[in-house]
Amino acid sequence: MTTLLTVPSTGEDLLTVPQVMARLQLGRSAVYDLLRSRQLASITLGRARRIPAHALNDFIRTRLEQDAS
């Protein structure tokens, strides 16, 4: 059985750490803590860390659901 992986279609779908910092209004250390704890998914391209936009949306949605319950 083959598993299909959905890959972002444009560079706009991959966010840098500073872009995530701005969107979440968090500092660099806080964003890297989220990445390190795997609360926020990311990929590494060479030495660059990128966060898929859908991963950031999923993270926000999950936190909203946790806060609502």
From TrEMBL:
Pfam families: HTH_17. GO terms for molecular function: DNA binding. Residues 14-63 form the Helix-turn-helix domain. InterPro entries: HTH_17, SinI_DNA-bd. This is Excisionase family DNA binding protein. It comes from Kitasatospora atroaurantiaca.
